[in-house]
Design a protein that fits this description.
The complex is a heterodimer of chains A (about 250) and B (about 200). By secondary structure, chain A is α/β, with parallel strands linked by helices. Chain A contains 10 helices and 12 strands. In chain B, β2 and β3 form a beta hairpin. The chains are: A alpha/beta (about 250), B alpha/beta (about 200).
């Protein structure tokens, strides 16, 4: 996506255009600061997706007004609260305060929580974007019960379909041609994400369509599109690597 | 053979007429380049650029979309040279392709077909995470840069680099005037999700 945007910017006359091609995955892996927006937190709440929301402000200040569901862990107490954090390191953890507290982010991130972010603008942006606030005592214990995202297929079930096949299900690989050239699951059909919307008529209405890509992101996009178009569908929300022989390895995110 | 070619020609011409139909274009002014391809490519004689609609093995034709209701139907044979794919049938539908042909536009015969390669970035245009870090520490004003997240907005909302702005690649033309700086020489750095 970014090289294409860069090219368009040059066509529009910009003369000093560069590309950070490695993008977000490398940025995240390096443990660098990640900022999230209120809209994403609202989405997690609306879709009832398990997450951890932490109010880093002093308890007294937090009690005056806080984001619903937040757990109070003042920044100064963060390091001793390490044991309160979930066992699942893939948990989305959102921290907020009055400013972007880089130190708090780095602490939580260094414990291995790869999906940590700082909420841009904190409580002020949350309420400005229409989010409700609460007052009173905040929870002090983190409870995190991961639930699958809507439409997510269990990894074991996906493997069973890939191994044995299923009369009423098909596996749809939505990666692009340059990726599938390095190997595909034996029973999978390939329609790249970029072309799915134009090729709906190639898909069966009487079978469930299980989508996968390389990390689950494009698979979920296609899942949403197919669902909207009236198909029965689910998606694999995991990292999958496939070799030339069709052998594959699935890793939970 | 001549007969077969003739029949084929009549048939493909008829299909072309139907497809051209409401576009109201005569063959003499038939465009050769699809609009988005014009960002990088100028029209050339005997070269069609567009997206692949279909390949008919039976009729030995390649159908290329170069406009909303405009499809070129180009004959090919076993002598077709292909670059960027191992065989004709492995080129996916809607893929951007270029076809060089001989003969006139009423009866084009494909000489070579090129599949658009995956986007590559010239090394001097690449920046690293550490270089971005230094700019982020300064902030967009002091650092005099703009960092642009090309992913869809929901991905941006979930987590982005500090001080980045969201400009979804698929909405680029629509939003560019609003999001990009007035100064054309300002440093703009684009990033996305690598391979997802």
């Amino acid at each position: 996506m970014s090289p294409e945007s860069a090219r368009r910017a040059e066509v529009a006359g910009y003369t000093n255009v560069k590309v950070f091609h490695e993008g977000i995955p490398v940025w995240k892996k390096a443990g660098k600061l990640i900022v999230s927006e209120s809209a994403a937190l609202k989405d997690l709440m609306d879709k009832d997706i398990a997450h951890v929301l932490i109010d880093l402000r002093d308890a007294g200040e937090a009690e005056k007004s806080f984001i619903p569901g937040a757990v109070s862990i003042p920044a100064k107490d963060l390091s001793v609260a390490k044991d309160k954090f979930p066992g699942d390191k893939s948990a989305p953890i959102i921290l907020y305060a009055d400013k972007l507290d880089e130190e708090a982010f780095k602490a939580v991130r260094s414990w291995g929580y790869g999906n940590t972010s700082l909420l841009n603008g904190g409580l002020a942006s949350w309420t400005k974007d229409g989010g409700k606030a609460e007052k009173g005592k905040l929870a002090t214990i983190i409870s995190y019960v991961p639930k699958p995202r809507p439409g997510e297929i269990a990894i074991e079930e996906f493997k069973a379909i890939a191994e044995k096949g299923s009369p009423d299900k098909i596996i749809l690989d939505v990666r692009e041609a340059d990726e599938t050239a390095n190997g595909m699951i034996k029973r999978a059909t390939n329609i790249p994400e970029s072309t799915v919307k134009n090729r709906l008529k190639e898909l069966p209405k009487d079978k469930e369509i299980i989508t996968h890509c390389a990390t689950g992101i494009r698979a979920e996009n296609v899942f949403e599109d197919l669902k909207e178009a009236g198909f029965k569908t689910r998606f694999l929300n995991a990292v999958i690597q496939i070799d030339k022989d069709g052998k594959y390895e699935i890793t939970k995110k | 053979m001549v007969n077969k070619r003739m029949r084929l020609f009549v048939l493909t011409s008829m299909i072309a007429m139907v497809l051209l139909g409401t576009a109201g274009l005569s063959f003499a002014e038939k465009p050769t380049v699809l609009a988005p391809c014009k960002q990088c490519h100028q029209p050339e004689k005997d070269l069609v650029r567009g997206t692949l609609v279909s390949v008919s093995e039976k009729f030995k034709t390649i159908n290329v979309q170069v406009g909303q209701k405009l499809v070129w139907i180009i004959n090919y044979g076993d002598d077709l040279k292909i670059t960027g794919a191992d065989k004709l049938l492995s080129v996916s539908k809607d893929k951007e392709i270029g076809i060089r042909f001989t003969g006139d536009e009423k009866k084009p015969y494909a000489v070579s077909l090129t599949v658009k390669p995956p986007a590559k970035v010239a090394p001097e245009k690449l920046v690293t995470a550490d270089e971005i870090s230094k700019l982020v520490a300064m902030g967009p004003e002091k650092g005099s840069y703009l960092l642009v997240d090309s992913r869809p907005k929901p991905r941006f909302n979930e987590g982005h680099i500090p001080h980045a702005v969201s400009l979804d690649n698929t909405k680029f033309d629509e939003l560019k005037d609003k999001m990009l700086p007035k100064e054309k020489d300002r440093l703009i750095i684009f990033y996305c999700g690598g391979v997802t």
